[in-house]
Amino acid sequence: MGARITGWASAVPPTVVTNADLEARLDTNDAWITERTGIRARHVGGVTSALTVESGRRAMAMAGVDPASVDLLVLSTTTPDQVVPATSSSVHHELGLSGAAFDLNAACAGFVYALVVADSLLGSGFRRALVIGSDALSAITDQQDRSTAVLFADGAGALVVEGGGPEPLLLAQDLGVDGSAARLIYSDRGGYMVMEGREVYRRAVRIVVESVGRVLEQAKVKLDDIAVFAPHQANLRIIEAVNARLGFPMEKTAVVLDRTGNTSSGSIPLALVAAAEQGRLRDGDLVLLSGFGAGMTWASAIARWGAPPGRPA
Ligand SMILES: CC(C)(COP(=O)(O)OP(=O)(O)OC[C@H]1O[C@@H](n2cnc3c(N)ncnc32)[C@H](O)[C@@H]1OP(=O)(O)O)[C@@H](O)C(=O)NCCC(=O)NCCS
Question: Does any ligand 1 atom lie closer than 6 A to the CB of residue 203?
């Protein structure tokens, strides 16, 4: 059973916080943040459901699909609007979708988890899916804590994936978790994000390199065959270290973190959508996705990029 990407869009809240803004109220500075992370600005003050609705609506408009014909919403989020019910239920209602909707929490690896889950459900009866990664980390980040406030922010990205057709959406996938590292990044109920940055950094590079190696082998694909690599947007130094070990060029890597910060579930689709909007992705291109995050979770996949119906790119 094949499946195909036919629409995409992203959304960020309007409020931008630059490094200069942070410098004015925290014991930090632009040089430290830029050198250590590559982040220069980020969007904050968002609400997960609103970002999800905005990105989802625009992705469906691009694909030219009637919302009522979308019978599956898989929403990856770590920052649901409330504990119960799932944020996907209000989004489902607001967008006028049909069928099933649920939230999935695999932190910054969540979007790739969501894509894999949606693909598998499209292979078992669902017809058309919205797959959205959306987070408002600013709501669970202590804006007075320089170790996290410089990093975490808000954003969402959505894909429309339609079942059917001859080609599979995913050529390979690798999902995993190491729960023994659960306290390296956490936010207890009602609390702020806490992170052991150094240890997360060290593990992230290793996890992503190994996981990417597994999907390349599974798909029997060479790095040269990958048009765009969209890694989790946590830290430019992590992305550069991963690419150096893999031998993959930065020119073919999608980077938006300089202007978005780390938006967790939003990060990989924000990077993918930006690459598509820059004309770096054509119908049939292979994209490599890889995320890691709280859990610690990881997820990589090799997917085939698509195009809106009747508009091959
Ligand atoms: C967070 C991160 C940028 C910190 O960089 P680092 O080089 O590891 O820095 P450290 O945490 O060791 O801190 C170094 C010094 O900078 C200070 N510091 C921390 N945050 C600072 C900030 N925003 N501005 C200025 N100084 C800061 C520390 O207090 C420490 O000072 P000290 O040497 O006097 O104790 C880096 O560890 C990282 O990116 N880790 C991965 C995080 C990640 O990917 N998280 C998301 C997972 S989904």
Answer: no
- 124 and 177 fall within a common domain: no
Q: What is the domain-level CATH number for residue 215? A: 3.40.47.10
- Does some domain include residue 313? no
pLDDT of the chain along its 313 residues, tens only? 799 999 999 999 999 999 999 999 999 999 999 999 999 999 999 999 999 999 999 999 999 999 999 999 999 999 999 999 999 999 999 999 999 999 999 999 999 999 999 999 999 999 999 999 999 999 999 999 999 999 999 999 999 999 998 999 999 999 999 999 999 999 999 999 999 999 999 999 999 999 999 999 999 999 999 999 999 999 999 999 999 999 999 999 999 999 999 999 999 999 999 999 999 999 999 999 999 999 999 999 999 999 999 755 4
**What is each CA distance from 285 to 4, 228, 239, 304, in whole angstroms?**
12, 8, 21, 6
The number of distinct structural domains making up the chain is 2
Q: Are residues 191 and 278 in the same domain?
A: yes
What spacing in Å lies between the alpha carbon of 290 and ligand 1's midpoint? 23
Residue 137 lies in a domain: yes
Residues 10 and 156 in one domain: yes
Under a CB-based contact definition with an 8 Å cutoff, are residues 66 and 15 in contact? Answer: no
- By most ligand atoms within 8 Å of CB, the mutation choice from 147, 148, 195, 207 for ligand 1 is 147
Within-domain flag for 201 = yes
3-state SS class at 125: coil
Same domain, 7 and 156: yes
pTM, entire model: 0.97
Residue among 193, 149, 155, 133 at smallest CA distance from 19? 149
Q: Using CB atoms within 10 Å of the CB of residue 218, give its burial: 0 to 12 exposed, 13 to 18 middle, 19+ buried.
A: middle
Full domain range(s) for residue 297:
170-304
